[in-house]
Design brief:
Blueprint lengths: L2 H12 L5 H9 L3 E4 L3 H7 L6 E2 L5 H5 L20 E4 L5 H11 L5 E3 L3 H7 L9
Parallel strand pairs: 1-2, 1-3, 3-4
Length: 130
């Protein structure tokens, strides 16, 4: 097993990952979906309506509950007490990102199993900018 596989397995051991329908229910209940995919993937495949878009390299700064650079969408939420579901393309990078958010104090952070592709395959809403 490679070092990154071990890192991923350790990260996932900390999470109770959610499927697409459960992620949609989290959003409906007031939780935050965070799409960390890069622009080319969002342009190609679309986005989840209402999801906060924060590319991976800015994630910690934009969601840090104590930071001055939080995204405006994250400010009104008591993020440590609310679910945050991180979404990447296929559900790998999001696992590592969710653990990073947990280390910042977002104790309910998790990720979407199968990522955006699982969301889309489940037939859940996707928006394409024209």
């Amino acid at each position: 097993m490679s070092a990154v596989d071990i890192l991923l397995a350790r990260a996932r051991a900390e999470l109770r990952r959610v499927g697409p329908r459960e992620a949609a229910a989290v959003q409906e209940a007031g939780g935050l979906l965070v799409d960390i995919r890069y622009a080319a993937l969002r342009e190609r495949d679309g986005t989840i309506p209402g999801a906060l878009i924060v590319e991976r390299n800015e994630l910690e700064w934009r969601l840090d509950p104590t930071g001055d650079h939080r995204a405006p969408e994250a400010v009104p939420l008591d993020l440590p007490a609310h679910p945050v579901v991180v979404i990447c393309n296929e559900g790998y990078a999001s696992s590592l990102a969710a653990v990073s958010l947990r280390q910042l104090g977002l104790r309910h952070a998790t990720d979407l199993t199968g990522g955006f592709q699982a969301w889309r395959t489940a037939g859940l809403p996707v928006t394409h900018d024209s």
